[in-house]
Specification:
924 residues, 4-stranded antiparallel beta sheet, Methylamine Dehydrogenase, Chain H, WD40_rpt, 37% strand, WD repeat, extended, mainly beta
């Protein structure tokens, strides 16, 4: 077996990005502030959409969904420690330290009161057994709910008789019901698991006791469940949170909290664990990886909360809010006796990737694993994002910088040794002159032609001294003050000019277009300074040395082989390979493709030129082939590709055509040719009332699609004429892409909204994504993850859930009916056969059995064929078939000549359909 060795090279580790945010749980509002006592418990009624809060003021406050106080329930005489809403009988249960367990009806009046004689600290409901369990001091009690169908006319909802268990030695602070079991924990650090029999009398049996679950008293406990896991999560005074299996095995421990854990909340929609520990915002953990992702999760106006001294005490997750599928809320009680509401937004951004210091203009991505996203903007830095394996919303970041250009020979440089004395002297004189000029700028004088007064820094100090000694009414002094003010203003302007010059010297050209070309594994980027930079992976850093089968070492003379597969060559990162310089202004359009075995590159931009580049194999670089030219007769001038600057470029491989959008309110379609003079114009897409900013080719419907500043999207046939339909976008189209799986049109607008139009539903808006705070500049679709990625002028990159129709397969080009050859550039190889698991139904397709020409009969048995035919019917059909065969045989025999007719003793010939004149040999 051949093995590989990696040459030892020091690689720079990937840099983690600044905090990104999971913006699915959005802050909505805060209500109920100004209460007299702290809130100890929360509950939500999904039927009436009401919020219940109870605390030290011995009252239960009822708020509607908007936060308005509806009513107050006053029956307890002590702190209210637990609230529970039972949706089965539409009853609210409450417990308090006064020992009362009260059931409240829908009208807000108590239905039943049970006096326990001991303080109550926690409350839970077992839906399988229809039982309520309360935590007391050193014991737990279980109450059985009454079935109203079995006891008609009864006003009670639970039996007054209860079953208790005294396993605890201190107060029971929390109780949880999960999958038919009860779990209790308390200040004695115990975690107790209870089993309750299905039948017979009410019994409470201890199944397992964990005596020291925490190092201090346990303050809170919840049950967390998703599609893959079921956990028991506990928080304690020891400033830690532990994750347990339902059998009591420790799975995970979360440390690093600064205070007592007061509440826990597992948010199923984002699969994150929210913790309150007297912090200014909920602390968020990923329970699967055990990582604190608080910096990656936006939990509301945390900056405002920090400045106002707001801290959170209690959390409640509401899985269903009677709204669209997936609706959820999180309620948080604060130290100001208020309630903060977060609401789940499925159309919000999954992740926000900040880090750009200026507007983000362009995006592209790779299809091979590991899947990479590249973003670039006006700061001139390309950032490479890669999603971490820990969770779905953390990304690592690397930056690609353009190397500093070398200085010209005539520029003086420090620390430069030149052997020629004359050249060295010349450099020294130039350097001395440069330094002297810079110093002289600070001693620059300004002459007054009228007064002949010269002001320098020394003169300024002299005037300041005279200002203290001479009479303020002196005219000479007033003149001096005037000239000094003018001198200060001149100096300030000079300083500003120097600062601007320094900034302009450090400023990099902005990135306005990017394309990742998968077949060559290169990144092509266009800049505002008219240059095109080609980036590639550093294959020379990762080298693999093969060993022979016997395990021998490599011979010194053997060449070193380099592995160039899609994974290994990406470990070392990317670097600038070479630069293309042909354009005269910003490069806004890039298209790369293979035609006739040759890789071609088309580029265009603000200079209205279309440059053709050919990839030469010997040098592995793109070299200039031609420029779009069409010399006019008698003039020889170069004809530009459009009357306005070109803003977008798209290539259609099926038709060997490319199209570009222009500021002149038109889009042009031309035939591709290696010769610029043979790029004939095929069509002009004319109809927009403002500049055309985007143009895309829809491979699914074979159509051109354009977006414009006139707030419309136009769909054109492959030939370009006429316009098929117009779609209203409600905002100027600044970005556009197509969903390669379902053909939807995704647009980004100046109004900061991303819209998804479904062409199969009469161009209705299937999804709207809101979250950007400035104009959306670029959108890409990643089908492997069913995600859209957008770039905006708000200096961020955001990841969104893609629009998926009902019944649409996820993340598959084959499922969408798109052939790999027709896949968009940058997606080739994404859905290889070995990468997609083949199901049993595909390996064993269901075949419809063919009908038998002659059924098999069993005497006396009727055969049900679905059309109610009996045995006699089949027998009659068989008889008719035999008679038909015999008649055909007799007819053929009569038509044959006499010499060729068989003898009488011979066996009759078999039925035959040969033409007349064919011989039939009879038996001898």
């Amino acid at each position: 077996m051949e093995t590989w060795k990696v040459e030892s090279r020091q690689l720079s580790p990937p840099v983690l990005p600044p905090p990104a945010f999971l913006a699915v749980m959005e802050y909505r509002h805060t209500f109920g502030e100004g209460q007299s006592k702290p809130i100890l418990c929360l509950q939500y009624n999904p039927i009436r959409r009401e919020v219940y809060s109870g605390g030290e003021d011995t009252m239960i406050r009822v708020f509607d969904d908007t936060g308005k106080l509806v009513s107050t329930l006053c029956e307890h005489a002590g702190w209210i420690t637990g609230l529970l809403y039972c949706a089965e009988n539409k009853t609210l249960f409450s417990c308090a330290i006064d020992g009362m367990l009260i059931a409240w009806g829908a009208n807000g009046r108590p239905v039943q009161k049970v006096e326990t004689g001991t303080p109550l600290y926690s409350l839970a409901y077992n839906a399988r057994r229809h039982q309520i369990m309360v935590g007391c001091s050193k014991e737990v009690r279980v109450f059985q709910l009454i079935n109203l169908e079995d006891t008609p006319g009864s006003t009670d909802v639970m039996e007054t008789r209860s079953v208790s268990c005294g396993e605890h030695t201190d107060l029971v602070s929390c109780i949880v019901s999960a999958e038919g079991r009860f779990y209790s924990a308390g200040y004695d650090r115990k975690l107790v698991i209870y089993d309750i029999p299905h039948h017979g009398n009410l019994k409470l049996r201890v199944s397992y006791v964990l005596p020291e679950a925490h190092d201090a008293a346990i303050s809170c406990m919840i049950y967390g469940k998703d599609g893959e896991n079921s956990w028991l999560i506990t928080g304690s005074f020891d400033c830690s949170v532990k994750l347990w299996s339902l059998d009591g095995n420790l799975l995970q421990r979360f440390d690093g909290l600064n205070d007592t854990v007061t509440s826990l909340c597992y948010v199923l929609n984002t699969q994150t664990l929210w913790i309150t520990a007297n912090s200014h915002a909920p602390i968020v953990y990923d329970p699967k990886s055990g990582i604190n992702v608080s910096d990656f999760v936006r939990t509301g106006e945390d900056v405002k909360h920090r400045t106002s001294g707001l801290t959170f005490k209690h959390l409640l997750y509401v899985p269903d809010v009677n709204e669209a599928v997936g609706g959820a809320k999180v309620l948080g009680a604060t130290n100001r006796k208020g309630i903060v509401v977060w609401k789940y937004n499925p159309t919000s951004a999954l992740t926000i990737l900040p880090g750009h210091t200026d507007v983000v203009e362009c995006l592209t991505f790779t299809s091979k694993e590991p899947l990479l996203i590249f973003s670039g903007g006006d700061d001139g830095v390309i950032r490479k994002w890669e999603r971490l394996q820990l969770n779905a919303f953390m990304y690592s970041k690397e930056t690609l910088h353009i190397p500093h250009e070398e200085k010209h020979d005539d520029e003086p440089t420090l620390y430069t040794f030149i052997r020629n004395p004359r050249e060295r002297r010349k450099k020294q004189v130039a350097l001395h002159k440069q330094v002297t000029n810079k110093l002289h700028n600070w001693e620059r004088v300004e002459e007054d032609p009228g007064a002949g007064l010269v002001l320098t820094k020394q003169a300024q100090r002299q005037l300041q001294k005279k200002d203290r000694d001479i009479d303020p009414g002196n005219k000479v002094l007033r003149h001096h003050r005037k000239k000094m003010a003018e001198f200060e203003r001149a100096q300030e302007g000079l300083r500003r000019r120097h600062v601007e010059d320094d900034k302009s010297s450090l400023a990099r050209p902005g990135v306005v277009s990017m394309l990742y070309y998968e077949p060559l594994d290169i990144l092509i980027s266009g800049y505002t300074d008219s240059k095109i930079h080609i980036w590639g992976y550093n294959e020379e850093v990762v080298r693999f040395v093969p060993e022979d089968a016997a395990g021998g070492e490599k011979e010194p003379g053997d060449p070193v082989s380099v592995r160039t597969d899609g994974v290994s060559n990406r470990v070392a990162g990317m670097s600038l390979k070479y630069t293309l310089e042909e354009h005269k202004d910003a490069v806004t359009g890039i298209a790369c493709f293979m035609r006739d075995g040759v890789h071609w590159l088309l580029t265009t931009g603000f200079d209205r030129r279309v440059c053709i580049w050919e990839y030469t194999t010997p040098y592995n670089v793109f070299q200039k082939k031609d420029v779009f030219r069409n010399a006019q007769q008698g003039f020889g001038r170069e004809e530009l590709a459009a009357d306005g600057i070109i803003l977008d470029l798209e290539y259609c491989a099926e038709r060997n055509e490319y199209a570009y959008a222009s500021e002149d309110k038109q889009a042009y379609v031309r035939k591709f040719s290696p010769k610029g003079s043979e790029m004939y114009l095929q069509a002009v897409l004319q109809g927009h009332d403002a500049e055309v900013t985007q143009i895309k080719w829809c491979r699914k419907n074979h159509q051109w699609i354009t977006g414009s500043e006139d707030r419309t999207i136009r769909v054109w046939p492959a030939d370009g004429i006429p316009c098929l339909r117009v779609i209203n976008n409600d905002g100027p189209v600044t970005a556009m892409c197509l969903d390669v799986l379902n053909g939807s049109i995704i647009t980004g607008s100046r109004d900061k909204v991303i819209r998804v139009f479904d062409p199969d539903k009469k161009d209705e808006i299937g999804q709207t994504n809101v979250g950007h705070t400035d104009e959306v500049r670029r959108i890409i679709h990643i089908p492997a993850r069913d995600q859209y990625v957008s770039a905006s002028w708000d200096n961020t990159v955001r990841v969104w859930n893609a629009y998926i129709r009902k019944g649409q397969p996820k993340g598959s080009l084959k499922a969408a009916g798109i052939a790999p050859a027709a896949a968009p550039t940058g997606m080739v190889g994404m859905f290889d056969e070995e990468e997609r698991p083949v199901g049993y139904s595909e390996l064993n397709p269901l075949l419809k059995p063919a009908l038998l020409s002659k059924p098999i009969f069993m005497p006396g048995v009727k055969i049900d064929t679905g059309i109610k035919e009996t045995f006699d019917t089949f027998q009659e059909q068989a008889r008719l078939d035999d008679e038909l065969r015999t008649a055909i045989s007799v007819l053929e025999s009569s038509l044959l000549p006499e010499e060729k007719q068989p003898r009488a003793k011979t066996k009759p010939p078999l039925p035959s359909f040969r033409a007349r004149g064919d011989s039939i040999k009879g038996g001898q």
